[in-house]
Amino acid sequence: MAPMSSELDPPNTPRPGRSRLALVAGAIAILVVAALAGVWLAPLIRGDKPTASAPTATPAAPAPAPKVDAPVAEEPATVIEASREARPRPRKKVEAPAPAAAPEPAAPTTGELRIESDVPGAMVFIDRKFIGNTPVTAKDVAPGRHQLNLTAEGFDGYSESIDVAVGPADVMVKFKEIRLSESVDVVHKHGIGSCEGRLRADPQGIRYETSNKGDAFAVAFTEIETFEVDYLNKNLKLKKRGGRQFNFTTKAPSADPLFVFHRNVDKVRKQVAGK
Fold this sequence. Notes:
By secondary structure, the protein is an alpha+beta fold. 22% of the residues lie in helices and 32% in strands. Among the domains are: 111-173, Sandwich (Immunoglobulin-like), CATH 2.60.40; 182-273, Pleckstrin-homology domain (PH domain)/Phosphotyrosine-binding domain (PTB) (PH-domain like), CATH 2.30.29.30.
C-alpha cells in the first residue's frame, strides 16, 4: 500500500528526524558557549587581574621518540657471564719461585795427583799400575803410602815412595835435574886399625860420616880423582885429587852394597864432570 501523501501534514509541522538533529546541534552549541564562558570568567571569579592576551603560539610538534628495540629477555646469569667474558681480566703478578740452593759437594775421601814432568810424555805408574803419560791426573787414589814410578826415553827411571793425602796434590818430576840420594854402611880401613861410618852421596858430592871426627870428610864430584870398586876384594877406593886416598869395605856377606853405591854415584859423577 502506498504511503500517504505529505499533503495531509500541516504545512509548518517539523519532521521527527530533523527535530532531533536540531536538538543535538543546540546542545553542542550550549556546551561550547559554556566552556568559553568558563575560560573567560574563571580569572574574574578568582580575583585575578585581566591581562592582555598574548597571541597564541602554535605549539611545535614534539620530536619523535627514538626507536628503541625491545630488549630480548635473557636470564640475568647469562648476561653477567657474557659481560665478564667480554671485559679483560687483570693479570695477576706471579712471583717466580726462588731457585733451589745447589747441594754442597760431598767432602773428598780420596786423593788426586796431578803428575807432570820436564820430559813430556813420560810413562806414569802408581803401585805398578799404568796411569798414563805426563801430564796426567790420577784420581781416586787411596790415602796412604804409594810407589810412584816414571820412565822417559833417554833418561834414568824415576822412583819414589809418596804419601797421598785426601784432596788434590801436584807432583813434578824432573828427569833433566840431577838427582842422587845414596848411602851405604862401610868400614874405613886405616893403616893400623879401622873405624865404622856411613858414606852418603848427593848431587853435590860424597861425604863420610863417622864418630871418628878425624876421618870424616866431604868431597865434591869435581874434586874426585879416583872412584872405583873391587868386587872380589870387597873394596871401594876413593882418592881426592892431589890429596888423600880412602879404602872402604862392608860387613855384608858380599860386595853388593858397595857395588850398587858405586854404580849409582859414578853415573851422576860423570854427568856432573861432563857439564
